[in-house]
């Protein structure tokens, strides 16, 4: 898997504020949204475009526009919703599919509880968004789901990643021959005994939406 840790002072600044236990939920949402837009800029470096010409007030100009079929953005519910707007701001014509996955806190295994995605994803570029790549179980299950529907190009955007999660994805998809990219704001130290990223930022879903 190709992993990009975006090294930029604005990313580091916003991430530090996100980590802060004293950052309240409205500020956390705003920062997550801003951070995603910065990550999305890097994550869309390979987005497919076709040649397109326009007339400027002065002369014809050759350029490009996003190719059909448009990219698909897939937030993993619930915490991935906090990353959706940051993505669609940069990719306004993207379609959005939803994947509801929950981690069983005793086994740390991912279970799918909701899906709203096109049946056929062949030829689609898919951007799957989930703030925390911890054990990697949820993201691996999500990516497998997308591959099973025909996707051949998946980029995952996570605010934070743990080495264990990256290793899990590398193992899960070694030899599939399908390109997978991961774009993240930081690679943290490790997971603790409860599966939380250290130092991390806590439970991203709770910090975005409250403990419900
Ligand atoms: N999910 C979270 O929200 N936080 C973690 O640290 C790990 C998984």
From TrEMBL:
Keywords: Allosteric enzyme, Glycosyltransferase, GTP-binding, Magnesium, Nucleotide-binding, Transferase
Catalytic activity, as annotated: UMP + diphosphate = 5-phospho-alpha-D-ribose 1-diphosphate + uracil
Binding site for 5-phospho-alpha-D-ribose 1-diphosphate: 78, 103, 130-138, 203
Keyword Glycosyltransferase: yes
Regulation: Allosterically activated by GTP.
UniProt cofactor(s): Mg(2+)
Domain Phosphoribosyltransferase: 5-210
Pathway: Pyrimidine metabolism; UMP biosynthesis via salvage pathway; UMP from uracil: step 1/1
Entry-linked InterPro entries: PRTase-like (IPR029057), PRTase_dom (IPR000836), Upp_B (IPR034332), UPRT (IPR005765), UPRTase/APRTase (IPR050054)
Cofactor: binding comment: Binds 1 Mg(2+) ion per subunit. The magnesium is bound as Mg-PRPP.
Binding site for uracil: 197, 202-204
Entry superkingdom: Bacteria
EC number: 2.4.2.9
Gene Ontology molecular function terms on file: glycosyltransferase activity
Function per UniProt: Catalyzes the conversion of uracil and 5-phospho-alpha-D-ribose 1-diphosphate (PRPP) to UMP and diphosphate.
Family classification: Belongs to the UPRTase family.
Protein name listed in UniProt: Uracil phosphoribosyltransferase
Gene behind the chain: upp
């Amino acid at each position: 898997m190709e992993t990009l840790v975006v090294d930029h002072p604005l990313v580091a600044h916003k991430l530090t504020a996100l980590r802060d236990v004293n950052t309240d939920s409205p500020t956390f949402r705003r920062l997550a949204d801003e951070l995603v837009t910065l990550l999305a800029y890097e994550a869309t470096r390979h987005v497919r475009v076709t040649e397109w010409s326009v007339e400027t007030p002065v002369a014809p100009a050759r350029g490009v526009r996003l190719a059909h079929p448009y990219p698909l953005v897939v937030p993993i519910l619930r915490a991935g919703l906090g990353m959706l707007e940051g993505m669609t701001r940069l990719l306004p014509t993207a379609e959005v599919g939803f994947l509801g996955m929950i981690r069983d806190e005793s086994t740390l295994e991912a279970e799918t509880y909701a899906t709203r995605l096109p049946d056929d994803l062949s030829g689609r570029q898919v951007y799957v968004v989930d703030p925390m790549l911890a054990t990697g179980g949820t993201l691996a299950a999500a990516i497998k789901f997308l591959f099973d529907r025909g996707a051949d190009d998946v980029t995952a955007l996570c605010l934070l990643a743990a080495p264990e999660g990256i290793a899990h994805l590398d193992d899960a998809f070694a030899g599939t021959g399908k390109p997978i990219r991961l774009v993240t704001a930081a690679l943290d130290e490790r997971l603790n005994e409860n599966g939380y990223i250290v130092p991390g930022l806590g439970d991203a879903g709770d910090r975005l939406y409250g403990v419900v």
